Amino acid sequence: MLTSLYHLFPRTIHPMVVHFTIAVNFLTSFVGIIGLFRRNDKMFSRGFFYLLILSILSTIAAGVAGAISEYYIAHIPGAVQPMLHDHKRDGELTGVFLVLSFVAQFFFGKRTAKVSVIAFVLCVISTVLVSVAGHLGGSMVYNSGLGVH
């Protein structure tokens, strides 16, 4: 049943979705750092909070899209397997750190209406992780031709 739903989406759905995820993650970190320096401006605290929600949702979408795109790949070369594993792991960890950042901002930043330093640090870690995942994804496509017909 589930595999028949995969055919509703193009094989390129992951690269179509993941670029938005990366951009939102970077934007969230950018708004967070501005919020740390502009402590009295509540707009950045609110923006950081809502961008964290959008980052989490887009990361989930990228993961689902990745599973769909992977379904279309007939053969994954042995040399690419470890990179694919690390790519998936880093994508999942991106989501974990975004959720942790959201929780930290909810509990520590919402009360004071300021960007939480803890939430910001966790968000920056997620930005590093999504960058590493993106680098691995690009290497698999451009260096190994994974998913290219």
UniProtKB/TrEMBL annotation:
Q: Among its keywords, does the record have Transmembrane helix? A: yes
> Origin, by domain of life?
Bacteria
Keyword annotations from UniProtKB, A to Z = Membrane, Transmembrane, Transmembrane helix
Q: Which residues form the DUF2231 domain?
A: 11-148
Membrane-spanning segments:
16-37, 49-73, 93-109, 116-136
Q: Which Pfam families match?
A: DUF2231
Protein name per Swiss-Prot or TrEMBL:
DUF2231 domain-containing protein
